[in-house]
Amino acid sequence: MELTEKTLSSQTMFDGRIIHVRRDVIELPNGKEAFREVVDHPGGVCVLALDGEDRVLIVSQYRYPYNKVLRELPAGKLERGEDPREAAIRELREETGAVAGTFESLGELYPSPGYCGEIIRMYLARDLTFGGTDLDEDEFLNLERVPFETLVQQVLSGEVRDAKTIAAVLKAKVLQGL
Asked: Which residue of 2, 25, 100, 142 is most buried, as measured by CB atoms within 10 A?
């Protein structure tokens, strides 16, 4: 069976600084019409940065939609047209002061494909050197170093709930044999 849906029309519902929301009329594979509400997002990056003692750089920051502080890998939004690898290098330096000697892809994550087009690119950084941070004016976070195996256990126990952090940690565990 063909699964592709065809866009018949599209209407912008909200045009914000970070996200854009549209309502599309689509044709289903069976020929009937339906609606799709879509959040357009420029995408993001996250970095699993390991120091020389196999500790992961973790940031804690308040996440307004959940009304709580979450522990996550350093991450950030892509600027439209920005190279994801360069964005990841920038975000790692800005949030942690770290610069990586080696930097490799851990793949992509579609965090909420039912309604959002965001793609998060995940990276593994090693051979770190440190300088100063350069946080955005509306960015407040605490940095900690967590042993990789401790972080794996925190992911598995549900203590860490951030999707990009969970995916990157488990992919690194399996793919890198960490």
From this structure: 100
